[in-house]
Amino acid sequence: MDRPMGSKHPEHGYVYPINYGYIPNTKAGDGEEQDAYVLGVFEPVDRIVAVCIAVIRRANDVEEKLVVTPDGKQYTDDQIVALTEFQERYFDSTVVRS
């Protein structure tokens, strides 16, 4: 978890209200490792084993973000939008489910 809950974004200074990290050994559209929002964990963590419940697709960016939870706990699209708004408000984002 490179940005645990409560940490600040290194460039923009906003605080992460949820844990945010990446999936090791993966590649996203930007060539970096795949990023993921972690929902359902209410304390900062270093690592987590989680299940992907949705993808946030950005129309104005080259990468997508995974939405993961420990044990596959479900969140509605509206809940996902509200919990990721701190960062996704800067993008044209849509929650996608398989």
Task: Give an overview of the whole structure.
By secondary structure, this protein is an alpha+beta fold. The protein has one domain (19-96): Alpha-Beta Complex (Inorganic Pyrophosphatase). It is built from one helix and five strands. The protein has a five-stranded mixed sheet with strand order 1-2-4-3-5, covered by helices on one side. The termini are far apart.
Query: Structural class per helix/strand content?
Result: alpha+beta
Q: Terminal Cα separation, in Å? A: 25 Å
> How much helical structure, as a percent, in the residues?
10-25%
Strand tally, please? 5
Strand adjacency order, main sheet? 1-2-4-3-5
Q: Which residues form runs of ≥5 with pLDDT under 50?
A: none
Mean pLDDT: 95
Largest sheet: 5 strands, mixed
Report strand %: 25-35%
The gross shape turns out to be globular
Topology as a string of helices (H) and strands (E): EEEEHE
What number of structural domains do the residues give? Answer: 1
CATH class: Alpha Beta
> CATH H-level name... which superfamily?
Inorganic pyrophosphatase
Please count the helical segments. 1
The second-level CATH architecture is Alpha-Beta Complex
Radius of gyration: 12 Å
By CATH, the topology is Inorganic Pyrophosphatase
